[in-house]
Amino acid sequence: MAGEDPLHVQALARLDAPLPPIVVHRETLRVVDGMHRLRAARLRGDERIAVRFFDGSAEDAFVHAVRVNTRHGLPLTQADRTAAAERIIRSHPHWSDRLIASATGLAASTVAALRRRATGQAPQVKARTGRDGRVRPVNPAEGRRRAGALIAAKPQASLREIADGAGIAVGTARDVRLRIRQGQDPVPKKLRDAESRMQETEICAQPAPAPVVVAAEPAASVTVSTDPPLKKLCKDPSLRFTEDGRALLQLLSAHTLGGTRWRRLLDAVPAHRRAMVAQAARYCGESWLRFAIELERRAV
Questions:
Q1: Are 66 and 32 spatial neighbours (Cβ–Cβ below 8 Å)?
Q2: Which one of 125, 127, 232, 286 is least enclosed by Cβ atoms within 10 Å?
Q3: Rounded to the nearest 10 degrees, how much is the dihedral formed by the CA atoms of 149, 153, 159, 163?
Q4: Is the CB of residue 38 less than 8 Å from the CB of residue 31?
């Protein structure tokens, strides 16, 4: 970020041995690695310098430049590494925190913090590529829940069938089956907590919705009647006697607003938080709508 170091250039220029090849992006002819060597060669009057060409996109060339500069030459500063990580998060959102950390010389936890700060600027993805080249879901809880549903629908299915159907590893499918047999939630607590934090981050990153103009109605008419299907669902043993079923019923009951309860909740929101609460409520409503659409699709 501070440009070339003139003292380092002079030190390289005094070397008698040929300078190592610089790396140049073939498409743009930009120097990817070796600006100090190039300056040194010019300083001592060299007309030629050895070059290795990099083939790939400009974004990949930048990653290569960062990676090699964390391993040799003049060390990158903490500010350089941080700025590089922020840029890679935007250009390679499908890379895991550990993969970006390995390229920038930062800790994975530091990259994760930078990614949280960049939410809304970087494209959102559902899966990321790790250092080992494997692609893993950003939210592993979803795959575990799909596996739990498959196990409930087909108790005799093999672990391979469950894993393929849910898009998870065989080992994960085995763990889900074991947890269900023990009466536990197929999603461990640490994954549920991580999912909650992720959802909170997404809510905060949602852009403010465009205002919607509706016909004015008297305040007393803003009510929602209790949904009769909910009463029937609460009596269904297939939902009442499973952990996920009970959680679903609790969510549906909590989100069924009507009568004086709606008015109490409206009055409980402080004036300076009304817009933000409205934004969060819209987000929740959209999530339930997606949930309903998926259920209706499966019912066909």
A1: no
A2: 232
A3: -40
A4: yes
Q: What is the pTM of this model?
A: 0.52
Token pair in block for residue 69: 């500069």
* CA pair distance 202, 282, nearest whole angstrom: 13
Segment 131-179, tens digit of pLDDT: 888 777 777 788 888 888 888 888 888 999 888 888 788 888 899 999 9
Q: What is the rounded distance in angstroms from the CA atom of residue 154 to the CA atom of residue 166? A: 13
Which of 97, 166, 156 lies closest to 130 in space, CA to CA?
97
User: Distance between CA 166 and CA 158 in Å, rounded?
Assistant: 12
E strand intervals along 123-246: 127-129, 135-137
Residue 70 predicted with pLDDT over 80: yes
- For residue 227, pLDDT over 60 is answered with no
At 258 the pLDDT is: 56
Find out whether 280 and 269 touch, Cβ atoms under 8 Å.
no
